[in-house]
Amino acid sequence: MFETLLVIYLLAALGVIGLVLIQQGKGADMGASFGSGASNTVFGSGGSGSFLTRLTAVFALIFIVVCLVIGHMSAHKTDSQWVDPTAGQTIQKTDNVAAEVPAQKGEEIPE
Fold first, then answer.
1. What is the pLDDT of residues 49-101, one digit of tens each?
2. Taking the mean position of all CA atoms in its chain, how far away is CA 57?
3. 98: helix, coil or strand?
4. Tens digit of pLDDT for each residue in 17-61?
5. What does the alpha-carbon distance between residue 44 and residue 60 come to, in Å, rounded to a whole number?
6. 8 Å CB contact between 33 and 41
7. Strand, coil or helix: what is 10?
8. Residue partners of 8: CB distance under 8 A and separation at least 6
9. Helical packing angle, 51-75 and 2-22, nearest 10°
10. CA–CA distance, 14 with 56 (Å, rounded to integer)
11. Rounded to an integer, what distance in angstroms lies between the CA atom of residue 3 and that of residue 36?
């Protein structure tokens, strides 16, 4: 599950980066409108966004949602299912309780 979310996260990040780089800036139309007397406005039409703008918003939303889910999963992480935390530890049980209690100053250790 976590690996799948990481792949989606990476693809959404690359999608946002690619779509932002493909889009033409709004300032690029400004020079054409002043020089040639075109009927375009300075900052382009104020209507609905183009396909690339909407697709960028979708990828950004996916990126943010997956980022929050991964952060939540990382914060509330349980013990790993792959590593046994008690591996390599040996616990020896003895019948002599006094041997398990460390001796204090001036006290003899019973044998």
1. 588 889 999 999 999 999 999 999 888 776 666 666 666 666 666 665 555 55
2. 18
3. helix
4. 999 998 877 666 566 556 554 445 544 555 445 888 899 999 999
5. 23
6. yes
7. helix
8. 62, 66
9. 150
10. 11
11. 53
In SS3 terms, 71-107 reads as HHHHHCCCCCCCCCCCCCCCCCCCCCHHHHCCCCCCC
Residue with tokens 């044998």: 111
pLDDT for position 76: 78
d(CA 9, CA 68): 10
Tokens of 77: 């992480």
- Give residues with Cβ within 8 angstroms of 98, minimum separation 6: 109, 110
